[in-house]
């Protein structure tokens, strides 16, 4: 059964994707961001995870079995670790299962669905730029949360502007409602009269 799964996976990368589309996806991959992510993951997880060969295929091979990713997400949770079992395997379905566990834990941590890569994006190297996007979003969240678990340069990732939501409160919201009320009042008069005059002119 394992060989059947691997055979199907080998067909995967070219299926349904033209070379031009694949090239466009590949062009979004950022080699500079790769260096930052590798440095962060290495610091975050410790020397045990090693470092990949430079380049996107080295990056993909490093993360492909899901173990490094699982170590990364576990290191960001201050209390109970979300991925209970991290086990390296050469079997395709086990590797994909480990990646899925990382993705579930990343969503629990706060990464939005729009920032999340699909398992095949990494495992079949379909969209490694999407993998970078997920890891960047994870880094940004870790810096923003500031729970003492982030291990790296805070300038590597943008701080999410969670605090800004609190600014739009009380006085500003009241002021906003007043502006909307005024606009609705003036728009009503203008649109009703203006449109009827407009129609009258066209008929004549």
TrEMBL record:
Superkingdom of origin organism: Eukaryota
GO molecular function list: actin filament binding
Domain Calponin-homology (CH): 31-142
Family matches, as Pfam families: Calponin, CH
One Gene Ontology cellular component: actin cytoskeleton
Biological processes per GO annotation: actin filament organization
Listed InterPro entries: Calponin-like, Calponin_repeat, CH_dom, CH_dom_sf, SM22_calponin
Family membership: Belongs to the calponin family.
Protein name according to UniProt: Transgelin
Species per Swiss-Prot/TrEMBL record: Sander lucioperca (Pike-perch)
Lineage: Eukaryota, Metazoa, Chordata, Craniata, Vertebrata
């Amino acid at each position: 059964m394992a060989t059947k799964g691997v055979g199907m996976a080998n067909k995967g990368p070219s299926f349904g994707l033209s070379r031009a589309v694949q090239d466009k996806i590949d062009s979004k991959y950022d080699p500079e961001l790769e260096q930052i992510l590798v440095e962060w993951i290495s610091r975050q997880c410790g020397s045990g995870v090693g470092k990949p060969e430079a380049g996107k295929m080295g990056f993909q091979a490093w993360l492909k079995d899901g173990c490094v990713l699982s170590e990364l997400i576990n290191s960001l949770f201050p209390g109970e670790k979300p991925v209970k079992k991290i086990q390296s395997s050469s079997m395709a379905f086990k590797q994909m299962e480990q990646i899925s566990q990382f993705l579930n834990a990343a969503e629990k941590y706060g990464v939005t669905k729009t920032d999340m890569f699909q398992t095949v994006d990494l495992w079949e190297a379909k969209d490694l730029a999407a993998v970078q996007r997920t890891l960047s979003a994870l880094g940004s969240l870790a810096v923003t949360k500031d729970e003492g678990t982030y291990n790296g340069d805070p300038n590597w990732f943008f701080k999410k502007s969670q605090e800004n939501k609190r600014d739009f409160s009380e006085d500003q919201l009241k002021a906003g409602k007043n502006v909307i009320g005024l606009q609705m009042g003036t728009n009503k008069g203008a649109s009703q009269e203006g449109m009827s005059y407009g129609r009258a002119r066209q008929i004549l």
